[in-house]
Write a structure and sequence with these properties.
43% of the residues lie in helices and 13% in strands. It has 419 residues and is α/β, with parallel strands linked by helices. The protein folds into two domains: 2-219 and 396-411, Glycogen Phosphorylase B (Rossmann fold, 3-Layer(aba) Sandwich), CATH 3.40.50.2000; 225-395, Rossmann fold (3-Layer(aba) Sandwich), CATH 3.40.50.2000.
Length: 419
């Protein structure tokens, strides 16, 4: 079997696909990933075939994460990326030709149309809830109600409207029928499309109403492998040995003036609370990056490694980072940039693994709010639940569950393409 995954996004979108690719290759299949050049080493280190898509990974981060405040901002970002690479459909067709299956996520939905043209079945991969349920939603702070279910109503129409604007010209040029406002990404060739959520069922319990084509698999990663070759700097060793377990504060590499302010505010909150912390915050200037007995600044460090050395974690709430922290049994504070991150922060709090998330898209939080959340984080009241959740996550094996589902899906009759 030949599988091609198309990924437009950040490392958190690409890394799980590379992990799945390694599993599929181990089963005797071929696996390829079409994505930005920046992710070539990550992919090839897993033994997976890399194919270049002319998309700037830094621009993806800027347009779809740091500049993203509303659904309109997201749409604008997608169209900016399309304009930067007018040949993206030709590159996609070249990449997926000869495949038995094409995988794609929200920002790479164009791959579905290329696959339709070449008569190739698809798999949807999402890192936050996209299929309607009463249980939870990106678009509602409530749970388990009809209002939650209704919050999904605009999603399929919005996706179809973006598709009509961006791709109907191309569809017409290759002889495909126009995409309509009532068209559905959830079906293809009269069959429900296999759909994966590479997250834990602890955070996203599958809805029984979804059907057996939708799988919440558990995370797609092998964190022990990521930590295996890391050599701890002697300065970090000295800091860890010099006092109580610190927390780890990770803000990633996204850049914006708002994030720069947040990082300074967080630094001030840490100083006020006196909580020991290892800090990864790339927008804090050199003059403020002063190591003390309470604070230690670090650049690149494997999260699975450092998570085993700390008592709690603060981050933006991306699916993979969030899962690694919970797997390590760490109480978690999410300071979110986007809806999906805010969703995971809310779910962390709901299951008892951390304080209520702070969401800077609503309002940049104050030093006092951050300090209060940090003190709550290390209060001890989340420790037992975080350890309980860790055990449940460790019992899941997402890559194996997903690989089994793919083999089963392709082996069944009715997978065939456009008639």
């Amino acid at each position: 079997m030949i599988i091609t995954a198309v990924a437009v996004g950040t490392r958190g979108d690409v890394n799980p696909l590379a992990e799945l690719g390694e599993e599929m290759i181990g089963r005797g299949h071929q696996f390829r990933i079409l994505t930005s050049e920046a992710f070539r080493p990550l992919i090839e280190n897993k033994g997976v075939t890399f194919i270049k898509l002319d998309t700037d990974a830094d621009h993806v981060m800027k347009y779809l994460v740091t500049d993203y405040k509303t659904s309109l901002d997201f749409a604008k970002g997608m169209f900016r990326l399309k304009k930067e690479n007018p040949g993206f459909m030709e590159q996609t067709l070249f990449a997926i030709k000869g495949s038995d299956l094409v995988m794609y996520g929200t920002c790479a939905a164009f791959a579905r149309h290329a696959a339709e043209y070449l008569n190739i079945p698809c798999v949807r991969v999402f890192y936050s809830p996209m299929d309607p349920t009463r249980q939870y939603s990106l678009y509602s702070d409530e749970y388990d109600s009809d209002r939650v279910l209704k919050s999904y109503n605009g999603l399929p129409r919005g996706m179809s409207l973006m598709t009509m604007i961006a791709l109907n010209g191309w569809r017409r040029s290759v002889g495909l029928p126009k995409w309509k406002i009532g068209s559905h990404y959830t079906e293809m060739y009269g069959r429900k499309v296999l759909t994966f959520y590479p997250t834990s069922q602890v955070l996203m319990p599958p809805d029984p109403a979804w059907g057996d084509h939708i799988h919440v698999t558990g995370y797609w990663y092998h964190p022990e492998e990521a930590a295996a070759d890391y050599e701890e700097p002697k300065e970090l060793t000295a800091f860890l040995e010099a006092g109580e377990k610190p927390i780890f504060v990770a803000f990633g590499k996204a850049e914006s003036s708002e994030l720069a302010k947040l990082q300074i505010l967080t630094l001030e909150a840490l100083k006020r609370t006196g909580i020991r912390a290892i800090i990864q915050a790339f927008q804090i200037t050199e003059k403020d990056r002063i190591n003390t007995d309470k604070l230690f600044f670090i650049d690149t460090v494997p999260y699975p490694y450092i998570f085993e050395k700390v008592q709690a974690v603060v981050h933006h709430g991306g699916n993979t980072t969030n899962g690694m922290g919970l797997r390590a049994g760490l109480p978690t504070l999410v300071i979110a940039l986007a809806l999906d991150q805010y969703f995971y922060g809310r779910m962390d709090h709901r299951i008892g693994c951390g304080p209520e998330p702070l969401y800077i898209r609503k309002r940049l939080c104050s030093i006092e709010e951050i300090a209060d959340a940090l003190k709550d984080l290390v209060s001890g009241k989340y420790d037992a639940k975080a350890l309980e959740v860790s055990q449940k996550i460790r019992e899941e094996n997402g890559v194996v569950t997903a690989a089994d589902a793919i083999e089963n899906y392709v082996s069944k009759k009715g997978t065939g393409g456009r008639k």
